[in-house]
């Protein structure tokens, strides 16, 4: 963990593009209340394959118009270089200077993977097109990406992204801080000098979390699963327990020198704000 302690701590919040005007109105309120916490930036996810891309552009604009820094996610799978180049140019004009660069996942039923195979190729392309204009964040997987051929390969693939020019990383969420500590130690051994900010998922809905965690390869430890299962439909108990567990983990991460936290807010204020307050940030 030593190298991580050198970086200043930074806090950021992630949104997904709302699908309706009502969703956008609601998100504006969430943005303003979380904005009062003075985050480094708000990031906005980007759907591979096209469906939510306009939503990303619109959400990013509204964040900027409200006076905050926005960091759009940009996934490359299924895209052409021309397409990515146009998006980068328009972000540059718009005054965006931070991008979360990802491969993304092909929407089911689509087969044309496009001109990029992996995120390291996107990072390289962004650097070649725009030099040092963008601060590039990439994804990191302390519990390993579900498609990785091995833990070692996954680490080496993370290294490719850093060597291609990534400035920092945000992790997939996890509930095992040891996985994160080991991951940053491994990065140190590989001589990777970038901050690796833990991605934090507040626990609010067990069924949804379990489904999502299976898909993205994040482990919910047995003791957490069993407790959450035992609450059944008792949402209040799930929230209270989740808040407790996640706040404690965040505290442990920050005390050990994690360079900040990135919250997967799920477009709601309360769960993130509760953790924030518990941490006394
Ligand atoms: P990569 O780094 O390309 O890795 C993908 C897999 O390929 C890994 O198993 C890796 O080991 C392997 N690999 C990588 N490079 C090589 C190589 N050169 N040769 C062989 N194998 C290689 N998805 C979205 O669609 N939109 C979003 O907005 C979004 N935001 C995210 C934000 C964060 C912080 C995180 C952690 C994930 C996000 N995702 C998003 C999900 C992400 O797109 C998926 O996890 C996707 O499957 C992998 O993307 P990546 O950028 O990590 O891919």
Protein topology:
Elements: E1 10-15, H1 21-35, E2 41-44, H2 53-65, E3 70-75, H3 81-94, E4 98-102, H4 119-130, E5 135-140, H5 151-163, E6 168-171, H6 177-189, E7 196-197, E8 199-200, H7 206-216, H8 222-230, H9 235-255, E9 260-264, H10 270-279
Parallel strand pairs: 1-2, 1-9, 2-3, 3-4, 4-5, 5-6, 6-7, 8-9
The site of flavin-adenine dinucleotide (FAD) has 26 residues, from strand 3, strand 4, helix 4 and helix 5.
Largest beta-sheet details? 9 strands, parallel
Mean pLDDT: 96
- Cofactors and ligands: flavin-adenine dinucleotide
How helix-rich are the residues, as a percent range? Answer: 40-55%
Instruction: Give, in order, the helices and strands.
Output: EHEHEHEHEHEHEEHHHEH
> What name does CATH use for the topology?
TIM Barrel
Per DSSP E runs of 2 or more residues, the count of β-strands stands at 9
- Terminal CA distance reads 21 Å
Number of helices: 10
Q: Look at the structure and give the CATH class.
A: Alpha Beta
**Shape, please?**
globular
Beta-strand residue fraction:
5-15%
**Stretches where pLDDT falls below 50 for ≥5 residues?**
none
State the strand order across the main sheet. Answer: 7-6-5-4-3-2-1-9-8
Radius of gyration: 18 Å
Q: In the CATH classification, which architecture applies?
A: Alpha-Beta Barrel
**Domain module tally:** 1
- What oligomeric state do these chains adopt? single chain
Structural class: alpha/beta
């Amino acid at each position: 963990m030593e190298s991580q302690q050198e970086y200043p701590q930074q806090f950021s919040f992630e949104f997904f593009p709302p699908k309706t005007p009502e969703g956008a109105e609601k998100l504006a309120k969430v943005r303003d209340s979380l904005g009062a916490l003075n985050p480094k930036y708000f990031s906005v996810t980007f759907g591979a394959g096209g469906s939510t891309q306009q939503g990303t552009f619109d959400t990013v604009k509204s964040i900027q118009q409200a006076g905050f820094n926005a960091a759009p996610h940009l996934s490359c799978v299924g895209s052409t270089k021309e397409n990515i180049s146009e998006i980068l140019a328009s972000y540059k004009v718009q005054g965006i200077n931070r991008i979360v660069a990802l491969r993304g996942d092909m929407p089911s039923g689509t087969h044309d993977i496009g001109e990029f195979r992996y995120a390291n190729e996107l990072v390289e392309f962004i650097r070649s097109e725009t030099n040092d204009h963008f601060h590039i964040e990439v994804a990191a997987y302390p519990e390993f990406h579900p498609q990785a051929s091995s833990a070692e390969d996954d680490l080496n693939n993370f290294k490719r992204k850093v060597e291609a020019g990534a400035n920092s990383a945000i992790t997939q969420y996890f509930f095992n801080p040891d996985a994160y500590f080991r991951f940053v130690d491994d990065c140190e051994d590989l001589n990777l000098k970038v901050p690796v900010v833990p991605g934090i998922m507040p626990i609010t809905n067990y069924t949804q979390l379990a489904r999502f965690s299976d898909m993205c390869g994040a482990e919910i430890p047995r003791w957490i699963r069993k407790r959450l299962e035992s609450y059944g439909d008792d949402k209040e108990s799930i929230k209270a327990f989740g808040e407790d567990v996640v706040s404690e983990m965040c505290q442990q991460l920050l005390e050990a020198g994690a360079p900040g936290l990135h919250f997967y807010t799920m477009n709601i204020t309360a769960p993130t704000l509760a953790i924030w307050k518990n941490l006394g940030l």
